[in-house]
User: Fold this.
Amino acid sequence: MLVYPLALALLCLGAGLLIDRCSDRFLPAALLPSVGVAALIALSQLSTYFSAIAPATPYLIGAFALAGFPLGAARLRRLLASARTQRQAVAIAPIAYLLAIAPVLLAGRASFSSFMALSDSAVHMIGADFLIHHGQDYAHLDLRNSYGQFINDYYGTGYPSGADTLLGGSGLLLGLPLIWAFQPFVAFMLAVATGPAWLLARRLGLVGSAAAAAALVATLPALVYGYELIGSIKEIASISMILLLGALVQLHGDWLARAPHRALPFALALAAGVSALGAGFGAWGLAATLVLLALLVAGRSRAAPRLARRSVRERSAERRPHGDSSAPGRHRDRYAVRPVLATTLVGTIVLLVAAWPTWRHISSSLHVAQAIASTGNAGNLSTPLKWTQVFGLWLRGSYKQAPVGAALVATDVLVVLAFCACLIGALTLARARAAAMLGWIAAMLLVWLVLDHAATTWVEAKALVLSSPVVVLLACAGAGTIARAARSRPARALATALALALVGGVLVSDALQYHSSNLAPTARYEELASINKRFAGRGPVLFTDFDEYSMYVLRDLDVGGPDFVYPPPALASLAGGYGRPVRLDSAAPRALRAYPLIVTRRDPSASRPPAAYRLAWHGAYYDVWARRAVAPAALAHVASSTARPLACARVQRLVRTARAGGLAALAAPEPAIVRVRLRHASHPRGWGRTHGGFAMQHPGTLSVAFELPRAGAWQLWLQGQFMPSIDVEVDGRRLASLAGQLAGNSLVPDTAGPLDVRLADGRHRLRVTRRGFSLAPGNGGAAVLDDAFLTPAVAPAAVAPQRLELDAAPHALCARPYQWIELVRR
Assistant:
């Protein structure tokens, strides 16, 4: 979490120095990392476009960045010397990174914070890995399973992959699992935006600590921070490019209509934005380009009268081949048509080449953008976001939920203050005739307003996220204007209070989301990674747990998930829909033959796979079942269910059928399960009902009695979502403290445990306590207890199916319940 971003910073700095050298060294130091990001995105896109060289992408990225250091050695020495006098500017990016990665960093374990919010990050993980290893070659994908369908239906149809190829290239260069590199990468992409934000803050008239604070809060407004936490890699990368375009617009005098190759940074920023966000980035790129065009037209119109008034002697001096560059004609040359056309031509060529994979499939990219813009699917948004969230202030643990009570009042007050500060900032820019800054901000806000009124809920949310940094910068400019205008002590105190309210409001908003974040369960994914290593190449594997991140962790096993967005077509009926439990018993006996392996979650209340599968590996969270090579195909598979258990009469009919047909009958015994009736539990007021249990919405203790039929070793199983610390006790004896135990989605309870305990027969009491408030990440996250039950502690081998004695007495056949019975050939 610290080594990887440091390596990324060196890669981006080296690439930025190289581009700076190619652009006549006009770039300010603050823009070098973001320009480097743009260059590396372009390079990784081009290398993965050609499948033959795609695996070399990590080394190409490293070589490209490494070349920048000797070529920019002189510039680098000056940067290091000036860093001592500009500590505030240098410190902004590390501070922004630490705040962005805080939930994972303070958890003390490798993880990511997009868990249970939006599983799109799973797609980016598998896409980043696939593109580096195979490039844009999708012909060999197996579309009969979820993994192949996800890759093909996303990346094979023009889905933007600019940020993914840089993630894959940089992560694999260091040999990192992308599942653990993902959140540091997204946080780094956000931290890179502080450079352009700082330059824009300086151009808005802010200096010193005021400029640093403005750059920080403009990079981390509440809505942007929330999207960073859920791993919105495309939007976060695009924010850096939007702010970089804005900074280059302010510097237009240093490169526009000068030497054509000075357009390289602007063209790369456009290309990186298009590669990362797709054709939709065109709205922001076009707006910035139109501002440049307006500045050119305005510059020529101002220059024309001055040229007409110059003397013949001055004009003849301009025509001298070795004339002084500071001669009066310099201003005219700056706006001449030929340099403008040359700059435009070079910039266009760079834009086309750097984003060639996107342009090559522009029709598909436009189709994707149109589908997103017109879909009625709001994603993970139950209601549209409020337009006031663009000000970066939202005193609630989730940007999807409105503040309540005193937090709502405080949010409204802060929003009003921010709105007034924005008006003052705009008036200040208008009075100063800061055409470049005013034009760029107006263009960005216009893009937001158009999308907000013309697009769907999902696109409106994206527009708010991408516009929020611009609005926050404008509000900071207004606060700075008030501070400069304050003459008396009360006025200065008021100005200081306003600035602190805006900065503090953003940081408090971020802290609330940090507190409510849900982190991925590290140990469970490490176990899956061990399964992938142990059984690599033996797939495809049928995965019955609802967790789409398994497609990356089990990437060498060609995962098929019946409850995923893209289920295996032949087995889609095994789940009742997206996120619903998988019922292996509903599969036809021959339907599973294509899967040598089945990975199931350890859950004794779930039915085991058919008899053709043996238990090949047993872990803390998962069981791996391997199909026996000589296993006969079942002629019938009859399963029990809650609605229709296998009654004794039905068992006897199956046995008679087997006896008459010369078949064998195999049965999976039903485990002895003692249910804990949570509906009879005493619980704190305010804990809401959910599924069969409770949403533990605040600290408190649940207490419930249960009875055991016999003494011995038992295992206690809890199902739910347990992000904050949950203490579990039986008869006053503390068994464990659960934390960070989450399922792949809130639709399906997670099965934690088992917790081993020896108990006597008779009555016992279970207590489950949610601890009080703490500053730990995720302390305000999901805390739900759905179910609790106990099973006898038995060895894994005890789950093997039994061969029924066909001549046994009826009462012997029905001595115990069965999960299922299969009829097979002898």
